[in-house]
Specification:
Two copies of one chain form a homodimer. Chain A is α+β, with helices and mostly antiparallel strands and 333 residues long. Chain A is built from twelve helices and eleven strands. The interface between A and B is large, with 84 and 84 residues.
Chain lengths: 333, 333
């Protein structure tokens, strides 16, 4: 795969965004976030998704100039309306606001409604962790899988993110409620690969590892079976309540996914202890995790986010991996 | 199974607690919580666990008179030390405090360290929901399963709870990070039943449904495989940082589980919208979930907490189910 210097990738994405009507500072932020997702190996929300974002920009279904407005709140809890603006811009703003609230109040929580796909949720967790906070956020989505006990697609896969700050590399959990995110299934299908474990049901209702079958049946397996289904439901309900926005079943009525609801929480742990104390506690936990004997020789246990960090460092040294066809597609945009 | 009026069960539990040195108001709260867990069908943290709690009381490893003390905080975020008091008392206090903070600040977050097993975490989520708040809480535990990629027991199963208020029955997610909690595996083993899906690995490293094998290998399957393992790690780190208390690997050094770390978050959604608006939003979500066609005729899709509520209502009408041997055991305590 060709490799591109990070800054060249950002410039190229920025050029395309500006050309299609997104002005700075939004264009600069969106270009950086897409490039970072690609740099970090989160290909499902990097260049694979970028042409779709450009198509959305051109569709007029999104307001490329909107800023979120505060529509309510009390102290450390605020409700914002994303006014159908750029999802990445709104999400980045909302986590920034949660961090500001956490500086004042110890913890900050922002509900964001009428917003659009944030692409990689982990980006906003990392944003909070960069500010020394624990970052927790989640989004609802259009229904993408059946609730446990049904084959009817009726719940979102509602990714949830938890990031814990650590100077040598934040801990980062970024997970959809399906065992494999749709973006991941699409990548595997394109690569002609199977899911490493059963990822859902085929059209006959049998568990399968064929990503194409799962995408066709629309029955991805929730993580932990009934547990992930239940988690998706409570996250959806909480997102709708905190933001005053739509739940997944209401998004479904639109036919396509827009005007979703999100929650952003930042916990200012440095208000509770010195930065050195916090660093030592997280490092001790990571060090302990690394002492667990690996099942496969040469594949040590990793802390959440460690694999991503390894890809990032490689990208920083060698350039960001970009598929040839993506580069061509990008240059034509 | 015999059935006992709820109030009789509370009285009997209260008698035993007082006899073994726990005074009111702690004895009254603990008796009520254990009885409610049994009433709600959460047998793993009802009478199955009660004799163990009494043994803990008698062991002197717990201070039956301790109250948590505030050891730090900023605004809506507070850090408390549980001073090795009664876990249920401390957890109930901490969620109550998070709710108080949420009334003032919109959201409240309490870290609690040096506390003991809270039994059923869902109880504290329901407590927040009863107060009109979204309740989120989690605890770390002594290591109970291997992290993904190892067979060494090195991470807790760190239950996480999310409750969403609803007058006709709160939404409640209460899940351990293992597909089946150890308490559940113990119940199934005693009943001679298998787990409904693979629940972990046997001593040869193969997936199995035999609860005895899983308890023996100490390799329960994390929910969503690597995802539940990662979630357990970030919850542990967050609990240790917010409370300033021990992480799972430090609890492990003690040999037995005590002095754990917990986080309690309450989000005061009624500060953002009228109670009627909130009720309507959650009811619409539940109603939609109920329209999904069931895979098995006569087994409609349930919202998280619905099955529990059904057992509770049955217990309220007919009395609380108690096994004969538990009743005998209780009377001898």
């Amino acid at each position: 795969m060709p490799r591109l210097p990070f800054s060249d990738l950002v410039s190229e994405l920025h050029r395309v965004l500006v050309r299609h009507g997104l002005a700075d500072p939004r264009a600069a932020l969106v270009a950086r976030l897409f490039a970072e997702n690609q740099r970090d190996g989160v290909f499902s929300h990097g260049l694979n998704r970028f042409p779709g974002f450009v198509a959305l920009l051109k569709s007029g279904r999104l307001d490329p100039t909107a800023d979120p407005v505060r529509v309510g709140g009390l102290g450390a809890l605020e409700k914002w309306d994303g006014r159908m603006g750029v999802g990445l811009w709104n999400a980045h703003f909302a986590m920034g606001r949660a961090v500001e609230l956490a500086r004042l109040h110890g913890i900050g929580c922002v509900g964001l409604r009428n917003t659009n796909h944030w692409m990689r949720g982990g980006a906003y967790g990392l944003q909070a962790a960069d500010a020394g906070c624990i970052g927790i956020c989640w989004t609802n989505t259009i229904p993408l899988m059946p609730p446990w006990g049904s084959a009817d697609v009726a719940i979102g896969n509602n990714p949830m993110i938890i990031a814990v700050p650590r100077p040598d590399g934040h801990l980062l959990l970024d997970m959809a409620m399906s065992q494999f995110a749709n973006g991941k299934l699409e990548v595997l299908k394109r690569q002609g690969r199977e899911t490493p474990i059963a990822g859902g049901f085929d059209r006959e209702g049998k568990l399968t590892r064929d990503p194409g079958e799962i995408l066709a049946s629309r029955r991805p397996l929730p993580i932990g079976h009934w547990k992930g289904s239940a988690l998706a439901v409570v996250l959806d309900a909480a997102a709708a309540l905190v933001s005053g926005g739509q739940a997944s079943h209401q998004i479904a009525q639109q036919g396509t996914e827009y005007a979703v609801s999100q929650v952003f929480i930042a916990i200012n742990v440095t208000a509770l202890a010195g930065a050195g104390e916090i660093e030592a506690a997280v490092n001790a936990l990571v060090d302990h995790l690394h002492t667990a004997a690996p099942l496969v020789a040469g594949e040590p246990v990793r802390y959440p986010g460690e694999g991503m960090l390894r890809v990032r460092r490689e990208s920083e040294q060698l350039g960001v991996s970009v598929e040839e066809r993506q580069l061509t597609e990008l240059r034509d945009l």
